[in-house]
Design a protein that fits this description.
The chain has 191 residues and is α+β, with helices and mostly antiparallel strands. The protein contains 8 helices and 8 strands. The chain has one domain: Aminopeptidase.
Length: 191
């Protein structure tokens, strides 16, 4: 547990790097907030499915958001960057991370439209799931998704998530569903 808590301290977050086949994942800092990042929040798909995107974002608001997530010990906000150009194409957030109950709530945003439907989510989740299991000793990833967001649901299912209720997540009864990824399933981590 001490090792896991060390990873969650703001001082330790800056050294975390996860390398996938196509991407580099690292904790976001305010230096990563750019005009391109801000423009994600004007995209029709993002506005439809990401509630916080509807909040008239500005560079300053995004910087405060990133700084807040960086400072918290129950949150990790990773940026997804391409290997070849270091382009920031999306984010992967784990919040809250509960080291006692051994789960984390997860959210993902592929902000760059040209990277959607190209397997980014499945790839980064495969690597992150393994890291979360072995470095933070987590057993489950949880997420909530709108039941009308069929593309996201298919992507999550491809990554190994199943629709399942959990006491740690209460989606809206009319339009939300909860999904769970069992990090103890070795088969899922080897896909």
């Amino acid at each position: 547990m001490e090792f896991a808590e060390k990873h969650l301290s703001p001082e330790s977050k800056s050294i975390i790097r996860i390398v996938t086949d196509r991407f580099n994942l690292r904790i976001l800092t305010t230096d990563d907030v750019s005009q391109d990042y801000l423009e994600w929040f004007t995209d029709e798909t993002v506005l439809r499915y990401i509630v916080s995107a509807r909040d008239n974002q500005t560079i300053d608001k995004l910087k405060r958001y990133v700084a807040d997530k960086y400072s918290r010990s129950d949150c990790m906000l990773f940026g997804i960057f391409t290997h070849d150009t270091s382009e920031h194409i999306g984010n992967l957030k784990f919040e809250p991370i509960d080291l006692i109950e051994k789960y984390a709530m997860m959210g993902i945003l592929i902000g760059s439209p040209c990277w959607r439907n190209r397997g980014v989510g499945a790839e980064v989740l495969r690597y992150m799931s393994s890291w979360l299991r072995y470095e933070l000793d987590l057993n489950k990833l949880l997420l909530g998704v709108e039941k009308h967001n069929v593309a996201a649901i298919k992507s999550y299912e491809k990554a190994g998530f199943v629709q399942q209720s959990t006491p740690f997540l209460q989606p809206h009864p009319d339009y939300g569903i909860s999904m769970v990824l069992d990090l103890l399933d070795e088969h899922l981590l080897q896909k």
